[in-house]
Amino acid sequence: MKNNNDWNPDLYLKYRNERTQASIDLVNRISIDFIPEKIIDIGCGPGNSSEILRRRWQSARIVGLDSSASMIEKAKSDYPDSEWIIANALTYETKEKFDVVFSNATIQWIPNHKELLKKFYGMLSDRGIIAVQLPLFRDMPLGKAIENVSKLKKWKSKTDGVSNLFTIYDYFFYYDVLSKLFNSIDLWVTNYIHILESQFSILEFIRSSGLKPYLERLDSESEKLEFEEEVLGLIKKDYPLQENGKVLVPFKRLFFIAYK
Ligand SMILES: C[S@@+](CC[C@H](N)C(=O)[O-])C[C@H]1O[C@@H](n2cnc3c(N)ncnc32)[C@H](O)[C@@H]1O
Prior knowledge:
There is one protein chain. By secondary structure, this protein is of the alpha/beta class. The chain has a single domain (9-259), classed as Rossmann fold (3-Layer(aba) Sandwich). It contains eleven helices and seven strands. Strands 3-2-1-4-5-7-6 form a seven-stranded mixed sheet. It starts with 8 loop residues before the first helix and ends with a strand. The structure holds S-adenosylmethionine. Residues 7, 19, 23, 43-45, 48-49, 66-68, 71, 88-90, 104-106, 109-110, 209 line the site of S-adenosylmethionine.
C-alpha cells in the first residue's frame, strides 16, 4: 500500500547539487590505502550519495539501504545495476562485514546514536571505517524558525513532539562515542552557502526534508501553506535578497570519519 507520508524523491532531487556536495566532500576525505570491497550507504535515499561512492570505487560492491520504499524505487530505476535494500538502519541485521559504512544526511532521522554508531562499528571488517555527515539544523535560523512556528498556540496541538523526531548532537558527543571504539577520528563542520533563486526556494528546499514531518501533521493544503508562510515570515530577515534577487542560505553540516 502506498504511504502518503513517504519521501518524495523528485522533490528531494530538485536540489540534487546542494544535497550531494556533502557526500562528495565526505567521500573525498576518506583516507585509506586499500580499495574497499564492500560498502554500505545507510539512508541512501534516491541513490545520489551511493553514486558518489561508486565514482570513487568502481570495483566495490555497494549496497544502498533505506527505509523508504519510494526512495529505493527511485534508486533502483536510476541505478539498476546496484544493490538496494529497504530496511530500518536501527533494526537491520546482517552477518556481512563492510570496509566502509557510509551515511550522508540520514542519522538525524534515527534515534539512539550511541547504539547506532556501535551498530555501524559492528558491521565493519577489520580494516573498516565509518563516514557520516548530518546537518546541524538546530543551529540554523531556518531550523529555529520551523521549531518556533511549531510551538505557536495554533499549531502546537498538531506539531507537538515533532522536533523530537530529530536526533542531533554536537561534536563533543560524537567524539566521546567514537573514541571508545576507534583509533583515529576526523571531525569537521562545513557551512555550505547555498545560492537559491528566492526566499520561497528555501521552503521548497526544506519541504522534502526538515519541514516534512511538520507538514505531515497538518490536515489540509491550506494549513500547510499557512505554516510555511509563517516560517517564511520569520526567516526573511536572516536570508535577505541579494542585489540580483537571489538568497544565500548558509547550511551547517557536521562530518566525521572514524578509522579502526
Ligand atoms: C535526507 S535523505 C539522504 C539521502 C542521501 N543519502 C543523500 O545524501 O542525499 C535521508 C534518508 O534517510 C532515510 N531514513 C530515515 N530514517 C531511516 C532509518 N531508520 N533507516 C534507514 N533509512 C532511513 C530516509 O528514508 C531518507 O531517504
